[in-house]
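Problem 3 from the worked examples.
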Amino acid sequence: MADTGKLYYSTTAINTGGREGESHLEDRSFEIKVSTPKKMGGPGQGTNPEQLFALGYSACFNAALEHFMEQEDMKNDTQVTHTVKLLEDPSDNGFKLAVDIGVAIKDLDKEKVQEMADKAHGFCPYSKATRGNIDVQVKAVPYEEGK
């Protein structure tokens, strides 16, 4: 595997049992039961990989958004919503992912929110990793109190 650039952080996750198993970090600081969703015929008694991907991607994307907000001295509250979809992939009769990203910034007009969201999408490491590999839609949405 080619490594380029300065290494800032590395982590290792281990899974046993696939979608009906258990995943944990190497140091066991985080452990989670993994399960296929009921809608897909599984027991649905654990977290699924798509949920975990949505959690990680949304946190990373929001950090990228806040990076650009700091540059413009903006302190508005933000909400970033990632909807991860597991879709049929007719090319191999398997599955593929798609992500809808909703970006809300309190007390900011929709055009400026979209501008900031697009900047974050260009900068976020998850967005870079998925670019060209999965369909991702980034859209400014209204800020909802208490969400």
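Problem 4, a separate protein:
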Amino acid sequence: MASIKEVAERAQVSTASVSRVLAGKTTRDEVRKRVMKAVDALNYRPNRVARSLRSNKSTTIGLVVADIQNTYFTQICRAVEDTASKSGYAVFLCNSDEDPAKEATYLSLLRDENVAGAIVAPTAETIRTLRAEALQQLPLVMIDRHPGRLAVDSVVLDNVAAATELTAHLLSHGRRRIAGLFGAHSATGAERHKGFLAAHQAMKLEPVTDLVRFVPPRAEDGHTAAAALLSMSHPPDALLTSNGLLAAGAFRAITESGALFPEKLSFASFDDTMWATMVSPAVTVIEQPTYEIGQTATEMLLARINNPARAVRSVTLPYRLIRRRSCGCG
């Protein structure tokens, strides 16, 4: 790998001139052209860590998501990368799989890599155990999950209200045996379960506890859990899932079961994935503003990096219930 000294020698300039060109600082056009020609010829790539140590300012941020296969997080990643790039930052992407130990390892790695800060969709365990000292070492913005007692910037959805409205919609169709699949070890799954219960309580109804499952938020687990529920001697008359991956698996189980759908079985989920309108019947969903979540979180993190003493902010973004045929609507 070429060094900055080799670039300078080839361009017949000083290493300081090479640094100025690569940093985008004003230089003579002739010098800039010679440096860039040498950079291309030698395939030179600046060492980001060394550069950040010299300038005492990192140009990378971390992004820790629960599952990149979930299109909800894929869309957030797109927004974070777009927004960070406009401000000259690169993004390290980490996938925690809702595993607190894996998440802790990634957060430690990001600190060791001297990133400027990180955006995290934290597990419930991380929210419970993260200490204030850690936030001083690595500026954070939490997304998707409420930070609880932590004084940390956050961008969230009102998961309880959204799940309450989605469940109430199923109840309004006369469904009384509503099954629920919620993400295990997930703060989001727990909040959406609270909304599920709140909707029943508002109508003075008791949810059927045997129909509630906390499962890993993956398509295969959604399929297994939904298939088991639908094969019961007294199956549910509605099924609600708390994310798009669970929904994909559950929808397949419903179609395989031969249930009269949506006449006898309603279905609804969080996350307006692409396939939700491509299947028949189209799926009733809670639509989340995924791009806005990623964009807002990145802007908040960059503001925190530039001004560590600024007041902590929590932004709650709106959701939208989209009614489609899977729940029995028109």
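Solution to problem 4. The CA atoms of residues 7 and 41 lie 9 Å apart. The first strand starts at residue 60 and ends at 65.
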